[in-house]
Every structure is written in C-alpha cells, then in structure tokens.
C-alpha cells in the first residue's frame, strides 16, 4: 500500500473513539455493474489492510460508490487517475471535527 495510508492508521490506532469509512470510486470506463464491484473490492482491500495493521474491524465500514461520486468530469488520463481512489472519512464519537486535506501525491497515470 502507498505511504499515504499511514495517515489513516495513525489516526485510528491510538483513538478508540474514532470510526472510519473507506469509500472507493473507479473511473467510468467500464460498465456500472463492473465499476460497483470494483469499488467494493477496493474498499474491502483498504479495510483489510488497516485490519492487518491493527485497526479493529468493528471501527470501520466500507462504502463502494461505483460511478456515483466522480472527482473529475473529464475523460483524460489525469481525470481518470483522480477518479480511481479510496477515500477515508473519519468520525469521532465525541462530536469532534476531523479535517484532512485531499492529496494527489500518489496518482497513477495510465
């Protein structure tokens, strides 16, 4: 997994009051059914990675988006790379805001 995945782990491991949703989005070049299944596999892979790193599975859920939440509306290599992603959404059971910035340091252009 990319180095950028250390941030979700560092936020979840020491804080039992935090929960995480791993949502995945493919690019739109395949059928809607294929993209939804791919999105689910990516979300599960992200969840399973964090579980192997010690994050309890009951603190996470997956949210496969399919093609419903594209980041870009274009059809170039950069737009497709932005669409292929896993997003981590954190919540804190105490009601605290958790703010992360988008990053594109690990985009993989085809």
At a glance:
The chain is of the alpha+beta class and 110 residues long.
List key phrases describing it.
3 strands; single chain; 110 residues; alpha+beta
State the order of secondary-structure elements, H for helix, E for strand.
HEHEHE
Strand content: 15-25%
CATH topology of the domain at 17-92: 60s Ribosomal Protein L30, Chain: A
For the record, the CATH architecture of the domain at 17-92 stands as 2-Layer Sandwich
- Count of alpha and pi helical runs: 3
Rg, nearest Å: 14 Å
Mass-distribution shape: globular
Biggest β-sheet strands, sense, barrel: 3 strands, mixed
User: What is the class of the domain at 17-92 in the CATH system?
Assistant: Alpha Beta
Approximate helicity band: 25-40%
CATH superfamily of the domain at 17-92: OmpA-like domain
Q: Span between N and C termini?
A: 18 Å
Summarize model confidence as the mean pLDDT: 77
Q: How would you describe this protein?
A:
This protein has 110 residues and is of the alpha+beta class. The chain has a domain at 17-92: OmpA-like domain (60s Ribosomal Protein L30, Chain: A). Helices cover 32% and strands 19% of the residues. The protein has three helices and three strands; from the N terminus they run H-E-H-E-H-E. The chain has a three-stranded mixed β-sheet with strand order 2-1-3. Helix 2 (32-52) links the parallel strand 1 and strand 2 (60-64). The chain starts with 5 loop residues before the first helix and ends in an 18-residue tail after the last strand.
């Amino acid at each position: 997994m990319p180095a950028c995945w250390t941030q979700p782990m560092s936020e979840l491991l020491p804080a039992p009051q935090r929960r995480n949703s791993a949502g995945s989005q493919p690019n739109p070049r395949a059928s809607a059914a294929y993209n939804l299944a791919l999105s689910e596999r990516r979300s599960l892979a992200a969840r399973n990675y964090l579980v192997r790193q010690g994050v309890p599975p009951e603190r996470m859920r997956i949210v496969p988006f399919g093609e419903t939440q594209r980041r870009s509306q274009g059809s170039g290599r950069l737009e497709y790379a932005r669409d292929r992603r896993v997003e981590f959404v954190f919540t804190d059971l105490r009601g605290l805001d958790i703010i992360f910035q988008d990053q594109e340091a690990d985009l993989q252009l085809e």
